[in-house]
TrEMBL record:
This is Methyltransferase domain-containing protein. It comes from Bradyrhizobium hipponense. Residues 55-141 form the Methyltransferase type domain. GO terms for biological process: methylation. InterPro entries: Methyltransf_11, SAM-dependent_MTases_sf. Keywords: Methyltransferase, Transferase. One of its GO terms (molecular function) is S-adenosylmethionine-dependent methyltransferase activity. Pfam families: Methyltransf_11 (PF08241).
Length: 254
């Protein structure tokens, strides 16, 4: 059974548009799209090679991901030189290993970061840089695993070499170059409030469970994860959907 067919077994509405009622990509990027307009300058923090825009999901979800042409400018930043060839950005810059870049202060109306926060080794430095780049009143939008969700916990408890082997079996379509070590230092409500304090940011954060993604195309594993998701309380859901608005009266960076 393929990944698509097993999803269709549990979410028959996939045949009507190519996405399920719990599709996390659609949920996240619909809200991102609602927060920008033609004049917006957008920064894709952790843009990489743009795999989500060209390879993953339905045509509808790929179109939602790609903001190029919908806004004034999309600027991609990443530590990986692959960002320099990302087709979904208008400009690309390399981040220093500490998370800083050469962009000017308050350049962005919106910054989005999709499955990047879990890889940030120094959240304090990265948070200062994100706050520096964002205009007052601008939005910081991120999707990232919950440190205390079952996927986050498994990733932290299993040694990296074993985790990579399991990931390849569970998600055989995942490419090696798209797998990065996760440290989970910016993946709890407490961490978000610490590094993006309420004195500087309004917080609109919620948790989410999308379709199970680590099931090796086995119905019994898929069904087990569905039951687990149903029983899991909101603080332990697998994904954080993070929407923060920079206050207009917060003053300069920390």
């Amino acid at each position: 059974m393929t990944h698509q067919s097993i999803d269709s077994t549990f979410f028959p509405e996939l045949s009507a548009g190519g996405f399920s009622r719990v599709d996390g990509t659609v949920a996240f990027y619909q809200r991102v799209n609602a927060l920008v307009d033609r004049d917006s300058v957008v920064v894709d923090f952790g843009a990489g090679r743009g795999v989500g825009h060209i390879e993953l999901g339905s045509p509808y979800s790929r179109a939602l991901r790609n903001l190029k042409g919908k806004v004034s400018k999309v600027i991609g930043v990443d530590v990986d030189e692959a960002v320099l060839s990302n087709p979904s950005v208008d400009q690309a810059y390399l981040l220093d290993r500490d998370g800083s870049c050469q962009l000017q202060d308050e350049i962005a109306d919106l910054i989005f970061s999709d499955f990047t926060f879990e890889h940030i080794p120094d959240p304090a430095t990265s948070a200062r840089e994100l706050e520096r780049l964002l205009k007052p009143g601008g939005w910081l939008c991120a999707r990232t695993p919950n440190k205390y969700g079952y996927i986050g916990l498994a990733n932290q408890l299993v040694p990296e070499a074993i985790a990579r082997t399991v990931l390849k079996a569970a998600q055989p379509e995942r490419k090696e170059e798209d797998i990065f070590p996760a440290v989970y230092r910016l993946n709890t409500r407490r961490a978000l409030l610490k590094h993006f304090p309420s004195s500087q940011f309004e917080h609109f954060v919620y948790t989410w469970d999308a379709e199970p993604g680590y099931h090796a195309n086995r119905p019994i594993i898929y069904r087990t994860f569905k039951v687990l998701q149903y029983l899991t309380p909101p603080p332990l859901k697998t994904i954080y959907m993070i929407f923060l608005r920079k206050r207009t009266d917060s003053g300069r960076s920390r």
